[in-house]
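Instructor's aside before we start: the two examples that follow are unrelated to each other. I chose them only because their records fit on one page, so don't look for a connection. First example below.
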Amino acid sequence: MENPPPQLKITLIGGGHLAEGLLSGLIPATPTLPLLNLKDVTVTARRPERAAQLTERYSQLTVTTNNKDDRIWKVSSREMETAGREFLHVVFICTKPKDLEGVCAELHGVIGQQRKPPTVVTMAPGISVAQLEAWLPRGVLVVRSLPNTPMFVGQGATALFPNHNVSAAQLGQVSRVYRTVTPTVVVLKDEDHINIVGATCGNGMAEGDARDLVTQTCIGSGVLARKTVEKSLSQLKSDVCVPGGSTIVAMNHLEVNGWGDHTAIALEKSTAKNRDMGK
């Protein structure tokens, strides 16, 4: 008799903007993920008032202010083992790069105590697999990921880079979760390419991967702009140009070098040509 397929368990460490983006697709997609029950999804938040907001908004999930809560690391796994079920635990660390080392230090002990280690997925640009392996227990399963903003309208694009400890089945579960909010999920062969994805989704990558990521980014940006009617296009741009990030550096470079003026002139020339063609 074959063993039943493993149950999926998901934890989101840091209940901020990124976590809510993932939840926006994960919750309605649960019927298409038969091995996931929403009672096995946990979100953590640092501040009690934020935890209260998340509890009110997502009453079907477990919400806690404690990243080492037994409900994350002990209760569900014991129940599954008692029932003869294996489980795959995927821990998404949804924090900013500057906070990642501290979160890893906090989780080091509980991850090391697990009979079956979780797959740890980060969303922080610039933090390498080598750094994560140094901050977490030996043999850790790590996947670097880089989703983009259109995930909030279910049209994002995500790049993944796993370390050597992650199996195809474990990586497949991470991909399935991301596909609930990002139709395009690409697994990269070179870790440095995740930095290229963050900048341009282009040079140096396999042509097919780059094309998939670029085209989905364009589609997703358009859908996001159309659906987010409560925000101006300028505000949407500001949302991704966070201080200290890579996007704002690129935008500042363009503005200093007259990108806005050159774009306006190009549009004026195109408009003039359209008028001339009718003469």
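Example two begins here.
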Amino acid sequence: MGILRTTTAVVGWGSLATVGTFVAMTRKSRFVSVSTTDEIFTNVFYLRNNPEKNPSLHDLCVRRVPLDRVKPELLEKDGKLVEAFCAGVWSGLAMRKRVEENANHCGKCNKGYTIQRKYLERKYRGPSTAHQLWERDVLQDSSYPVGTEITDHFEVLSHSASSILVRCGDSPMNKEVRASDGLFEMRAEVKQAEGVAEFQLKNCFYQGLGKSETGKPPLGPLLDWAHRLYTKLWMESAIRNVMK
């Protein structure tokens, strides 16, 4: 996943203060195991685009928020909560607000998707991608219907009242089986009995084109670790967009 390598290099983890603030900001997010029977592995897009059944790198990040801390207007109509959660991932606005309110902040790591978006914009934005979502305010306001293309790297494949699934790994204009491919799901569910809203970020990366020569999931341990840090940043940015 070339974009992950680039983003990791740009973000960096420059000081103990940065690391300490990062840990404090993301301490409520946790990774849980993804079952081998998870629906992502029976998803039509996964089966179609991983014809060789190559191994995948997959993970699931979970965060819970008390319902009384969620913006009430997002709970009034089905689907609004996951749309705001999704918008928070891509716009980075909530993370920026958090930084402005907190003088002891985490430098570059607080920018959520901003760094990746700016990198992709410099490299791929042009007449052929003008129909895609690029600007922060547009990313914030979109409801992410099926077919939405984001910064020439993501495409919305499905959208329900609790889940938005996107394809990643290459330009959405490449509809074929890809050498580098993946699925990224954003899910938001209200658990009334427990008095919480549960938010999930699920990733599944794999080699789609050709048989894997190594028989191992893509990305090594270091990039897997960096990816998990980045996922926690996305989670924090997204959560801030749904909270009061």
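The first strand starts at residue 30 and ends at 32.
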